[in-house]
Each structure stands twice: as C-alpha cells, then as structure tokens.
C-alpha cells in the first residue's frame, strides 16, 4: 500500500476536511493563528473519528490540543478505549518547526497496536498556504 502524505491549509473561518482515503495516520497540526476552543474541539473530533492515532501540535496554544484530543477520544469511546483507537499526543511548544517535522518523520512512525503509521496529514492553521515550504522542510530534516 502506498504511503500518503497530505498537506491541508485551513484558512481562518474555514473547517478542515480530512481526506476519506487516509486511515490510521499521524497528524501534525501547525497553529500560527489564534483558534477558539470550538474549532479546536471540532477538529479534534474529526481527527479521532477519521483514524488519527498519533497527533502532534506545534505553535500557538499547542498544549491545549492534547486535552482536546483526549476529550474527543473519551467522548467517542468512554472509559473503554480500544487499544487500536487510543491517540498518542505530543505538543512542541517553543520549538522550531523543524523539530516537530523531525519528530513526525523519525519518532512517530512507530508500530502501534500492530499498525505501521506511515501516512501523514499536516493541517496548517496559518496565515497562508505554504505546502511547498513545509514539504521541503520535511524532506530536509534528518
């Protein structure tokens, strides 16, 4: 099966749309603008519902994503979270963007509940689309 790497820029005022063909994946959320809790909670539910198993947040208020995703998992499964649906989360506060890209590339591709997390979704909550720049940085980290 071919690995999928997907970048999605989400302009202010719009909602993210998780590609239907991506399943059991890693996700980086890049936050370079303020987002309200309703947006964060909605996107967290989308990530959980669509099969994200490893979520990494970088940028403004990135530590709030850990709690938001945990709450989305709990909402979906209650206290009996199936091992294969538990979502690992990390946040990368006050670190260069290259650090979270490195982490996603080399540390988050773990074998998780017998699943290789090869697919990667990058959701960019920034001011402009920078797909080429982000993939270039991702390719260069080592």
In which range does the helix fraction lie?
25-40%
* Major sheet summary line: 5 strands, parallel
Give the count of helical stretches: 4
Please give the number of β-strands: 7
Return residue spans where pLDDT drops below 50 for at least 5 consecutive residues: none
- Portion in beta strands: 15-25%
Structure classification: alpha/beta
Distance between the termini: 24 Å
Rounded mean pLDDT score = 92
3D architecture notes:
- This protein has 142 residues and is of the alpha/beta class.
- It is built from four helices and seven strands, in the order E-E-H-E-H-E-H-E-E-E-H.
- Strand 5 (111-112) and strand 6 (115-116) form a beta hairpin.
- Helix 1 crosses helix 2 (63-77).
- The longest helix is centred in the middle third of the chain and has 15 residues, at 63-77.
- The chain is globular and about 40 Å long.
- The two termini are 24 Å apart.
What labels describe this entry?
five-stranded parallel sheet; 35% helix; two-stranded antiparallel sheet; 142 residues; alpha/beta; globular
How would you sum up this structure in a few lines?
This protein is an alpha/beta fold and about 140 residues long. It has helices at about 35-50, 65-75, 95-105, 130-140, and strands at about 5-10, 25-30, 50-60, 90, 110, 115, 120-125.
How are the elements arranged and paired?
Elements: E1 5-9, E2 25-31, H1 37-50, E3 52-59, H2 63-77, E4 88-92, H3 97-107, E5 111-112, E6 115-116, E7 120-125, H4 131-140
Parallel strand pairs: 1-7, 2-3, 2-7, 3-4
Antiparallel strand pairs: 5-6
Helix pairs in contact: 1-2
């Amino acid at each position: 099966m071919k690995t999928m790497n997907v970048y999605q820029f989400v302009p202010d005022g719009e909602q993210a749309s998780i590609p239907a063909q991506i399943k059991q994946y890693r996700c980086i959320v890049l936050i370079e603008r303020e987002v309200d809790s309703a947006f964060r909670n909605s996107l967290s539910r989308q990530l959980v519902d669509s099969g994200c198993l490893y979520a990494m947040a970088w940028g403004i208020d990135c530590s709030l994503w850990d709690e938001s995703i945990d709450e989305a998992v709990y909402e979906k499964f209650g206290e009996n979270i199936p091992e294969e649906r538990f979502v690992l989360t990390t946040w990368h506060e006050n670190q260069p963007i290259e650090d979270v890209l490195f982490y996603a590339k080399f540390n988050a591709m773990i074998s998780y509940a017998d699943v290789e997390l090869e697919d990667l979704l990058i959701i960019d909550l920034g001011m402009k689309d920078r797909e080429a720049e982000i993939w270039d940085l991702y390719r260069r980290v080592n």
